[in-house]
Amino acid sequence: MANAFLIGPSVYLRPLEREDAPLVAGYLNNPAVRRTLAAYRPLSVGQEQAFLEALATNEQNVVLGVVSRDRDLLIGVTGLHRLDFRGRHAEFGLFIGDPSYWGRGLGTEATRLMLDYGFGTLNLNRVWLQVFGHHASAQRVYEKAGFRREGIQREQHFVEGRYTDGVLMGILRAEWTPLLPELREALKTPASREN
Ligand SMILES: CC(C)(COP(=O)(O)OP(=O)(O)OC[C@H]1O[C@@H](n2cnc3c(N)ncnc32)[C@H](O)[C@@H]1OP(=O)(O)O)[C@@H](O)C(=O)NCCC(=O)NCCS
After folding, report:
1. Residue nearest ligand 1's atom 42 by CA
2. Mutate to test the pocket of ligand 1, among 115, 141, 149 (most ligand atoms within 8 A of CB)
3. Rounded to the nearest whole angstrom, what is the distance from the C-alpha of residue 86 to the centroid of ligand 1?
4. Which of 67, 140, 142, 157 has most ligand 1 atoms within 8 Å of its beta carbon, as the pocket-test mutant?
5. Domain N-acetyltransferase, which positions (predicted)?
6. Ligand 1 neighbour 24 (Cβ under 6 A)
7. What pLDDT is attached to residue 194?
8. Strand, helix or coil at 189?
């Protein structure tokens, strides 16, 4: 677990390096991944390198790579964006860029790790996001992590030749169930659990 920053049972989150740019750009250009993201422009490796380098000094974003613990492979990216320390809120973002990892609970785990960091470390009061109305699996992930549907922006987005709604979701600090206690239990060895 090189440079692990937040650690879950199946994934860990770590800072992204310039060297990660080719993999991340490849994920974001993949039509299967970007079709459910707001990103629509082609992304060069150079552009992604510049983005990653600028992150180091960017106070409004905390962006971390999602790494699968089974193969120590960078499989996605997650972030808290537009951090507002007066209103104490941030916008959540996530993609698992390797589709062979979809449906294994890893997106939910990464979301919960970021909520623990946002509420438990950054002392946020609210985390929010926007998701396409037809993107059922993402909405399910966010609901599992504790987000609630807050509203609909009708025909807000144009995707694959048609308009789709934007669904606004949010979670307040008071609604957050920390993953950490569960994690501590899950990461205990059988011997230490008896103590
Ligand atoms: C959306 C995304 C983050 C989900 O990640 P993931 O690791 O596959 O998510 P999880 O495995 O934790 O959970 C997926 C859930 O969606 C459910 N699901 C999958 N397809 C579904 C569908 N068509 N309708 C309803 N639920 C669906 C799964 O059954 C699972 O729920 P369950 O645990 O109750 O069974 C991932 O597919 C992704 O990154 N896609 C591309 C980029 C993207 O869309 N990012 C989000 C932008 S808002």
Report:
1. 95
2. 141
3. 32
4. 140
5. 11-174
6. no
7. 45
8. coil
| pLDDT of residue 76 exceeding 80 | yes
Q: Report residue 7: phi and psi, to 5°.
A: -120, 125
Q: Phi and psi of 15, rounded to 5°?
A: -60, 150
Instruction: Check pocket membership of 103 for ligand 1, CB cut-off 6 A.
Output: yes
Say whether domain 6-187 belongs to CATH 3.40.630.30: yes
DSSP alpha helix (H) spans, the chain: 21-29, 31-34, 45-55, 106-120, 136-145, 180-187, 190-194
- pLDDT band at residue 186 under the 50/70/90 scheme: low
- Biggest CA pair distance of the chain: 59
Q: What whole-number distance in Å separates Cα of residue 3 and Cα of residue 96?
A: 19
Q: From CA 175, how far away is CA 153, in angstroms rounded?
A: 23
Ligand 1 atom showing the smallest separation from residue 101 Cα = 7
- Quick check: CB of 104 below 6 Å from ligand 1? yes
pLDDT bucket at 182, cuts 50 / 70 / 90:
low
Does 148 or 189 have the greater pLDDT score? 148
Rounded CA-CA distance 73/10 in Å is 11
